[in-house]
Write a structure and sequence with these properties.
By secondary structure, this protein is an alpha/beta fold. The protein has 16 helices and 16 strands. A seven-stranded parallel beta sheet has the order 3-2-1-4-5-6-15, sandwiched between helices. α2 links the parallel β2 and β3. It is globular and about 75 Å long.
Length: about 450
């Protein structure tokens, strides 16, 4: 029996546990699922004989070391900052490790030790990061192998609500961490390269600089720039590419509406609102508007934002009930961003029958035999229900598949890594298709800038 330790049984672990249990008899696997909530871990086992749920406290060093020592491989689904303690123990006890998180500096610092012990420390093997890396490198490698030179790479991803559950004016509901949505784009200007020139978009301009995308069968979307599009430039081997842009996907109109909150200052997370637990939603909205002896909060807001009463932007604000004087915030020592998150959660929480949707879109521009060409690759994944969401599927399945590939000796390159090598991405992308995660690639007329035609 081969033992897999899974640390963390949250929503993103649902599909990975289901997958590994479905393979457990054939592959001779036993899963130990550890979480602070043993009830949550037990629900994920679904009473399967090849799974054991345990109370697991990552800060209990004795227990952590004991459980890691018993395993053949460890999956950490903890918050990213907690992986390092697990990783150090994996080095000590010579165990492979798989996470869906970005590679931190601390994790990268274990690369030499992982290689010395012939250990695979696979990171960034979820959705974004993860499926984006694998699907991009598959096409980029294929272009290079036929003699092409990359000149453009744009990549977009978004967690959205499925069309059948899309029933609010914002065309959006929370499918992942709400706080990350509220704070999106903060902490520095968005940076990318366009036609060989560095471009920067400051936060207060970010949501008015969007690109439109068309996905067959699902209509139009928009994308706004991620904070650092150049993070993977060298990793992908794209140091000489003319255009490199990574963005977040939303339905058309979302960004213009979200920009209202940015301009008002409601997304600020740097200071605390006095008496935040006693103020109403209406009071909160009024905090960001100038004083006027007679004008109502509604009129002041329309004047501040320059929107008319018949503008769809006004209807979107009304839908969120931000002028309600009877609803209290109820959060002590809260920042504006935390209060906004509370207000949005009232309206944007997925209902029991709602389904989520993941959309990913890559554009590859390349030159071959003096001709410029383009390939567009698109993927749409719809969730099954509130347990096996599209987000849980696209995060959890690649983690589970990589774990099994490592156990079976098919992924052998040691060290701290992300899934950009063929031994990783080819089998996983192929198997993901069996679970409805399919990229459709299409040759397109090149839409980038051509200096010879200026």
């Amino acid at each position: 029996m081969r033992h897999i330790l899974i640390i963390g049984a949250g929503r993103s672990a649902s599909s990975l546990i289901k997958y590994l249990l479905s393979k457990s008899v054939q592959e001779n696997l036993h899963l130990t699922i550890g979480d602070l909530s043993v009830e949550l871990a037990e629900r994920k086992t679904n009473n399967h004989p090849n799974a054991t749920a345990i109370v697991f406290d990552i800060f209990d060093e004795k227990q952590r070391k004991a459980e890691i020592q018993k395993a053949n491989i460890v999956i950490s689904m903890l918050p990213a900052h907690l992986h390092f303690e697990v990783a150090k123990d994996c080095i000590t006890f010579k165990k492979h490790l798989v996470t869906a998180s970005y590679i931190s500096e601390a994790m990268q610092g274990l690369d030499a030790a992982a290689k010395a012990n012939n250990l695979v420390f696979m990171n960034e093997i979820g959705l974004d990061p993860g499926i984006d890396h694998m699907s991009a490198m598959k096409v980029i490698d294929a272009i290079r192998e036929k003699g092409g030179k990359m000149i453009l790479f744009e990549s977009f991803c978004g967690g959205l609500v499925a069309p059948e559950s899309d029933n609010n004016l914002w065309n959006y509901k929370f499918t992942w961490a709400p706080r990350n949505v509220v704070l999106a784009g903060q902490g520095g200007a968005a940076k990318f390269i366009q036609e060989g020139t560095y471009k920067y978009i400051p936060y207060h301009k970010l949501f008015r600089r969007t690109e439109f995308l068309e996905v067959e069968g699902y209509g139009r979307f928009e994308g706004y720039a991620n904070r650092d599009s150049l993070k993977y430039r060298s990793v992908y081997g794209l140091d000489d590419v003319l255009t490199l842009y990574r963005g977040t996907i939303r339905r058309v109109g979302y960004s213009r509406a979200w920009n209202m909150f940015v301009q008002l200052g409601m997304t600020d997370d740097t200071y605390i609102i006095d008496n935040s637990d006693t103020i109403s939603y209406r009071d909160f909205t009024n905090l960001f508007l100038p004083y006027h002896p007679t004008d109502s909060v509604e009129i002041k807001l329309r004047l501040a934002l320059g929107i008319e009463q018949d503008d769809i932007m006004w209807d979107k604000l009304l839908e969120l009930d931000i002028f309600n004087a009877r609803k209290n915030v109820g959060l002590k020592n809260a920042t504006p961003a935390q209060i906004l998150e509370k207000i949005l959660t009232d309206n944007w929480t997925l209902q029991p029958d709602d389904k989520d949707m993941i959309v990913m879109y890559h554009k590859f521009g390349y030159e071959i035999n003096g001709e410029q060409k383009q390939i567009d690759a698109k993927m749409v994944c719809i969730g099954e229900d509130q347990t096996y969401t599209a987000m849980a599927k696209t995060v959890g399945l690649p983690v589970a598949m990589a774990t099994l590939q490592i156990l079976n000796g098919n992924i052998t390159t040691p060290g701290v890594q992300l899934p950009i090598n063929k031994e990783v991405y080819l089998p996983i992308l192929k198997e993901l298709e069996d679970y409805g995660v399919v990229f459709y690639e299409k040759e397109m007329p090149y839409t980038g800038y051509n200096p010879d035609k200026v």
